[in-house]
Amino acid sequence: MDLSHSLHQANTDFRRYVDSILQQMPAKAPLLQDGIMYVMQSGGKHMRPLLVFAAAQAMGCKNEHWLLPAAAIEFVHTYSLVHDDLPAMDDDDWRRGRATAHRAFDEATAILVGDGLQALAFNILSSLPTLGVSSDQRVTWVSLLAAAAGHQGMVDGQAMDLAAEGKTLSLHELELIHRNKTGKLITAAVLMGAHCYAVAPTDQQTAALNTYASALGLAFQIVDDILDITGDTATLGKDAGSDRDNNKATYVALLGVDNARKKAEQLYAEALTALESLPADTSALKTLADFTLQRNR
């Protein structure tokens, strides 16, 4: 991932912070702990944690309060990947360039790893000591993450995605799936970052952040769909062509590669326009939008 200096440093700080949490709060069962460490240390783009950082910057937050919600959202995101890869879901063999958790360990361990990470996310948000973070901020973070991850967000999107396998969907139906499955957690990352600042964002700022995140989330998914067709397993770090093999509805299947790219570019422009009304430094949010459009994995 090609990062600006500030994002590169934020990514380094984030990795250290997550490692410190996992060392402070290890699972007592050795196999479970090995599984958690395996999936959390397997790389990944850390897009959602960096969006927390970037949104905090855009609101003028200069401290490191962003690390707590960033860790929580990455725990939830990683749990979702572990569960999505299971035989009952997408039945994938590769994730982030390594064997998926149920292949490296076993199905039961993979399920428990996901369960543990999801609970850990809310544990740290509600209880991990962080100087200067108010109880109101914690409640907001918990509320945003729970809503985005649950049965009216990411889980709902996954259920709709599974139900749509082998079916022909309209563009509206496909967008509904991905606004939930992918977009809700991306939006949560941006809004949780905005609430790192002591002063809550205004309604106008919240609307702008929502517009940016919603457009970015759909663009991210469209690029994913394109890469599933045009990429290879070695570069992607996961099974190329798995959407096609599972008869999943995709933007490429509906629009074709060229029109899907044009759609992603339109969403990118919409995301950048939304940044114009934010009060502080939006360069990191722009860089992440650039990465979303240009990435190859």
Structure, described:
It is a single chain. This protein is mainly α and 297 residues long. The protein has a single domain (5-294), classed as Farnesyl Diphosphate Synthase, CATH 1.10.600.10. It is built from 15 helices and 2 strands. It has helices at residues 5-24, 30-40, 47-58, 67-84, 101-104, 107-127, 135-149, 154-163, 171-194, 203-230, 233-236, 242-245, 251-255, 257-274, 283-294; strands spanning 94-95, 98-99. Strands 1-2 form a two-stranded antiparallel ribbon. A hairpin with a 2-residue loop joins strand 1 (94-95) and strand 2 (98-99). Helix 1 packs across helix 4 (67-84), helix 2 packs across helix 6 and helix 14 (257-274) runs antiparallel to helix 15 (283-294). The termini are close together. The mean pLDDT is 93.
What topology does this entry show?
Layout: H1 5-24, H2 30-40, H3 47-58, H4 67-84, E1 94-95, E2 98-99, H5 101-104, H6 107-127, H7 135-149, H8 154-163, H9 171-194, H10 203-230, H11 233-236, H12 242-245, H13 251-255, H14 257-274, H15 283-294
Antiparallel strand pairs: 1-2
Helix pairs in contact: 1-3, 1-4, 2-6, 3-4, 3-9, 3-15, 4-6, 4-9, 7-9, 8-9, 9-10, 10-14, 14-15
Gyration radius (Cα, Å) is: 18 Å
Order of helices and strands: HHHHEEHHHHHHHHHHH
CATH 4th-level superfamily: Farnesyl Diphosphate Synthase
Largest sheet: 2 strands, antiparallel
Secondary-structure-derived class: mainly alpha
**How much helix, percentage-wise, in residues?**
55-70%
The residue-averaged pLDDT reads 93
Number of domains: 1
Spatial gap, N to C terminus: 9 Å
Count up the helices: 15
What is the β-strand count?
Answer: 2
CATH class wording: Mainly Alpha
Protein name: Polyprenyl synthetase family protein
InterPro entries: Isoprenoid_synthase_dom_sf (IPR008949), Polyprenyl_synt (IPR000092), Polyprenyl_synt_CS (IPR033749), Prenyl_diphosphate_synthase (IPR053378)
Pfam families: polyprenyl_synt (PF00348)
Family: Belongs to the FPP/GGPP synthase family.
